[in-house]
Design brief:
Blueprint: H1 5-47, H2 50-66, E1 76-81, H3 96-114, H4 116-122, E2 126-136, E3 145-155, E4 159-168, E5 174-185, H5 189-193, H6 207-226
Antiparallel strand pairs: 1-3, 2-5, 3-4, 4-5
Length: 227
């Protein structure tokens, strides 16, 4: 049986129509999915600080996967770059609030690499920021690379005390120094620290930390009197 070219084209027409319909349908689904994803991301960026959580996951993930574990008495470092999202209204250097945000990432990194937070959680405890103080020595200019160092300087039965520094890589200058009190709940910190090599004995309390704690206590007493 012979089929003319016209009859063959007529037979292929429904197939071509279905292929064209499937292609248009697929493109529509992809467009709807892309629009939905874009709207979802926009809403998330409006109601959540998405970059904060992304940075936390990236910092912790990189530290745990690609960096060696550290002793609790070791100093840890993370690196950053002052971008247009970090600057103040004059668009020249990092704004003051950004320093405190960056300190969070460095502190989480220290907790992960030293294993101290894992030990706290294993004992049913937690860690909360009890106090912090930042001394700004010189600004971090826009597009400058820097590192944040973190080290444990002292502890008592209820808290650990960290010193953190912002150091610009170009000149090695310490741009800011921060001291923080990390209150540890439901754990005897002195006893816990004895389980870490090198931390069996408490170091001497730094003089600047002593004076800072005295200032905190003075403020606390003033607030108690005002009640």
């Amino acid at each position: 049986m012979r089929f003319s070219r016209v009859s063959i084209l007529n037979l292929n027409a429904p197939i071509a129509w279905h292929i064209s319909w499937a292609r248009r349908h697929t493109i529509s689904i992809v467009r709807m999915f892309s629009c939905g994803l874009l709207i979802t991301m926009l809403v998330l960026y409006i109601i959540w600080d998405v970059n904060y959580f992304i940075r936390c996951v990236a910092t912790l993930g990189y530290g745990m996967l690609f960096q060696r574990k550290r002793r609790v008495t070791d100093q840890t470092s993370i690196y950053g770059l002052c971008t247009t999202q970090d600057v103040d209204i004059f668009i020249r250097h990092m704004n003051n609030a950004r320093y405190v945000r960056e300190l969070d990432f460095a502190r989480f990194h220290f907790y992960a690499l030293t294993g101290i937070y894992g030990k706290i959680k294993a004992k049913g405890g937690g860690a909360v920021q009890g106090a912090s103080s930042v001394r700004y020595r010189r600004t971090i200019p826009i597009f400058s690379a820097y590192k944040i160092t973190t080290r444990l300087v002292w502890w008592d039965d209820k808290a650990i005390y960290l010193e953190q520094q912002f150091v610009t890589l170009g000149d090695g200058f310490v741009r800011a120094v921060a001291m923080s009190k990390q209150c540890i709940t439901k754990v005897d910190v002195v006893e816990m620290m004895k389980q870490f090599p090198g931390a069996e004995q408490r170091p001497t309390m730094p003089e600047e930390l002593r004076q800072w704690l005295e200032a905190i206590e003075t403020s606390s007493q003033k607030l108690r009197k005002e009640k």
